[in-house]
Amino acid sequence: MNTVANDARAAGARVGLSGDTITINGGSPLTGRIEVKGAKNLVTKAMVAALLGESPSELRDVPDISDVRVVKGLLEVHGVKVEHNVSEGILLLDPAGVESAHMTDIDAHAGSSRIPILFCGPLLHRLGEAFIPDLGGCRIGDRPIDYHLEVLGSFGAVIEKLPTGIRMTAPDGLTGTKISLPYPSVGATEQVLLTAVRAKGKTELSGAAIEPEIMDLINIMQKMGAIISVDTDRVIRIEGVDKLQGYTHRALFDRNEAASWASAALATGGDVFVGGAQQAEMLTFLNIFRKVGGAFEIHDDGIRFYHPGGELKPVVVETDVHPGFMTDWQQPLVVALTKANGVSIVHETVYEQRFGFVDALVKMGANIQLHSECLGGHPCRFGQRNFLHSAVISGPTELHGADIEVPDLRGGFSHLIAALTAQGTSRVSNVGIISRGYGDFITKLRQLGADFVIEGE
Ligand code: EPU
User: pTM value?
Assistant: First the structure.
């Protein structure tokens, strides 16, 4: 079995799936209320930030997802005491006993996660050395780490490539620096933040990513004692300090999960109240949702997403860094666009290969063509490089049930939606991988009235 399937099986076991295949009888609308917790893409980084504190940290609204378990395991092999109250969604992280870990232990706990790269700055400050194994993550292109290595090198880390991974040391400590990112990478911006807050002197980062999850990480670090300012034009300035404390923080909600359930409501002709979702971080998504013909109501405690009846309309969407339309929102939306009356275009400009999931939709009857040209708007950095990164979706089409296999996290959620929308029965394998980022998705599907059976139960 490959690594992805192994991860999926392990993740599946943890979410209460006895196997990693579910059979879905599609065709009925999802209706009801579910709650979203803290954002996967903030919570995992907030856990790493706890390494920098001289006292314990407390993180609230932590989702029950396997990525959190992976980071918990990685922190534990580095000597951090972690208590996870899963039902309350609270993590207590005590870094008093931080110690070096062996590459093999890091590798064993990291699975396919890319998180170990973000441990480097904090570990170099605390221990003077850090290791990273070969990194995985979702299969969405190469996902290189060149920006991360350049960032760490420019703070003064000495980087040594070994056959099993990378070893870093900081014989003279880490010193603040001036960095300009060639692309506003989320991970590289987090790398700078996690390293600069304890580096000697000042750091200036231009070309920074400014996603809400990054802003919330900055909130956390400010609580810890860091001095970080976010200026206009994607410039972040950090003044290094000698000491940081632990934090207490309630994580920002998961806007990717909220958008996924919203698209599921629209594609199935349903009505889903997403408790915990908030408008400000979803502004761009809400505009597109409305243009497609979806309706929403903003409440203090969440957002109701529903299909108001009538035809869905085609749209032209380009994924982009914040405040653009997130790359993680396109896969579930594409399923809804197969129901729209006309030709939609989705131009993926963040990752070069994020349309692998459409093969399954085509197998189910969708009319989707992939192109290597930049369609629908501005040329992007993938235009001349022969990557199939523009999708043309012609609708409306009726999807029919099929046997499909989840390829990655967001693509996997779109497969679930497609199966829920389709006429007939679908067998969806590898679903455990979805628990990397969607807490209790099986329970939530049940709450929304989905008709499915878990194989082996
Ligand atoms: N890139 C490089 N070199 C690097 C780092 C990134 O070329 O060293 C490129 C990537 O290949 C990609 C682009 O820069 O083409 C943007 O990548 P970025 O670094 O912004 O992404 P990331 O930090 O690896 C996070 C999220 C992703 C989300 C992206 C974009 C986490 C754990 N992951 O990834 O989330 O899509 O930002 O917002 O925070 C997901 O949740 O399913 C997911 C993939």
Answer: 0.95
